[in-house]
Amino acid sequence: MDLESFREYCLRKPEATEGTPFGPDVLVFKVGGKIFALASLDDVPARANLKCDPDLALELRDRYEQVTPGYHMNKKHWNTVEIESGIPDIELRKMIDHSYELVVNSLPKSKRVRNKGGSASPLRAVGSRELEAKTKLIKAAKPLKKYQRVAENGAGRSRAT
Predict the structure, then answer these.
(1) pTM (two decimals)
(2) Is 140 strand, coil or helix?
């Protein structure tokens, strides 16, 4: 993946913006005002910093010599990735997706990416069906209101709808 392809992929993410707050040589990609990727325009080979779950960050560093602790970033949560040095494009896209999802998930509900239905579910916006299933289970497991419990115990009150 070259730098232009990296840039285009980052900008295809819902609500993603691009800027140069650290000077004209560093592209910064944000969602909801928070950074999910940075790319230096001067590095050869091209490099980018991507947010990463700490355990996955260590695994990626072991798997690819082109992945190192984040340069000028919290090394526990960020990786620097050489994007033009042999890591398959599909793996790079997964790393970008992961970084984006971590940032979206950390946003307050008012800033989360909105899906077509208007809800602020960040994972639905990036394609997770797992969250949807968990949400249904949580809603189903909510405790009954007091008068609902009384009705179930046969005290004569009707259930609320």
Answers:
(1) 0.67
(2) helix
Measured in degrees and rounded to the nearest 5, phi and psi for residue 34 equal -115, 140
Stated as kind and residue range, the H or E segment containing 105 is helix 89-106
Within a 13 Å sphere around the CA of 2, how many CA atoms are in the beta-carbon half?
Answer: 1
Three-class SS state of 133 = helix
Task: Give residue-wise pLDDT tens across range 30-54.
Answer: 999 999 999 999 888 889 999 998 8
Give the Cα separation of 19 and 30 in Å (integer). 8
* Average pLDDT rounded to a whole number, residues 141-161: 48
- Per-residue burial over 139-149, b if 16 or more Cβ lie within 10 Å, else e, is eeeeeeeeeee
In a 13 Å sphere around the CA of 21, the CA atoms on its Cβ side amount to 10
User: Which positions ≥6 away from 15 have C-beta within 8 Å?
Assistant: 31, 32, 113
**How many Cβ atoms from other residues are within 10 Å of residue 154's Cβ?**
7
Q: How many angstroms separate the Cα of 41 from the Cα of each of 6, 25, 38, 44?
A: 12, 5, 10, 9
